[in-house]
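Revision sheet: structure tokens.
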Amino acid sequence: MAGRDNFQLRFAAVAAAAAVLIFLVSGQVAEASRMMNICSHTSYPSLCRPLVKRVTNPRRATHRTIQALEAKTKLALADAARYKDGNQAIATCYATLSDAVYNLESARKSIRKRDVLAMNTFLTAVVSDYGACMDAFIETKQVNTVQNVVVDLRKISSNCLSLSTLIR
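Predicted:
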């Protein structure tokens, strides 16, 4: 009888260990799967993927996207500066792009300080800045290179804001 009880005890211990192992592995697989598809949480995954290559941490993905937005916004700002005289839509866009650069810098500083609330506030302002720029072009019925770039910047900023909501 003692041998049988000993066998049952070992069997129960092995079964419990296997259950715990399966639980832990399934949790890690689910977490890995969620992180592998980080861009699937955004509105424009095709614009997200090239910016966050192989990054699975939402904080890092958001930081990398903010950096890319800063660089692209500064290029758009330089382009707008060349054409702002005599074109009210581009002049308006130039002002909002300047605001966007400031808000992106502030968002980047906030993410370093781990101040997610401030970061989300600045990123929301960035989305609004790009929207105001696009509105200026829509009102004047203009289509030009600055406007085309701002359309993509607004989409990327929307993605960035989506990524920032994943930060825990």
